[in-house]
Amino acid sequence: MTRRFDPAPLPTELVDELLDLARRAPSAGYSQGVHLLALQGEALADFWRITGAAEWFADVQPGVLDAPVVVLPLADPVAYTSRYAEGDKSGHGLEHAANWEVPFWLTDTAMAVQNLLLLAEDRGLGALYFGIFRNARAALDHLGVPAHVLQVGAVALGRRADDDVPTGSAVTRPRRSVLDVVHHDRW
C-alpha cells in the first residue's frame, strides 16, 4: 500500500480504463450492483473535509493527501435483492436483504476493489485502500449517492512518490505461515 503519492494528475483515460476493468469482478446473479465513484479536484477536497480524513492523514500519513484520485467503491443492495426476486433466481428468500447470510453486494464490491489494487500495481501506480470512519453518509449525500447505496471504504490512487517506503503493519508484523491458514479436508 502506498502512503506517499506524487500529486501529478492521472490521465482521465487511464482512470476510466482501470475502473472499467475493476468493475468486471464477479457479480452474484450478474446483479451488477457495484459502483465506482472517482473523486478529483473539488469533489476530492470536499470528501477529505467532510469525512475528517484530511485532518487524520495530515497527522499520520500526510503523503496520502497528495493522491490525485480517490475512488469510492459503492455497493447497491437493491440491485441484488431485485435481481434475486426475478423468476430465475427467486425461491430462496433473497429478495430481502436480511436473508442474505453473506451480503454479496459487499463481497462483489470488495472483489472490484481487489481488481483495482492489482491493476494499479500492474500499471506501476500506487494505491491505498482505507476505511472511512467519520461522516461517510454525509460525504455520500454531498456527492449525490442514493441513500440506499453503501460505501465500502476508499482507494487513494496515483503515482507513488519517489520517497514512498513501506510502512505500517505489513512491515511490523510477519505474514502468517501457509500452514496456519491453508487447510485441506478439515481444519
Structural summary, described in words:
Helix content is 38%, strand content 16%. The protein has 187 residues and is of the alpha+beta class. Strands 1, 2, 3, 4, 5 and 6 form a six-stranded antiparallel sheet that branches.
Quick synopsis:
The chain has 187 residues and is of the alpha+beta class.
What are its keywords?
single chain; 16% strand; 187 residues; alpha+beta
Order of helices and strands: EHEHHEHHEHEEHH
Low-confidence stretches: none
Q: Kindly state the percentage of residues in helix.
A: 25-40%
Structural class: alpha+beta
> How many distinct beta strands?
6
Overall body shape: globular
Gyration radius, in Å = 18 Å
Q: What's the average pLDDT?
A: 96
Name the beta content range: 15-25%
Largest sheet: 6 strands, antiparallel
Q: What's the quaternary structure here?
A: single chain
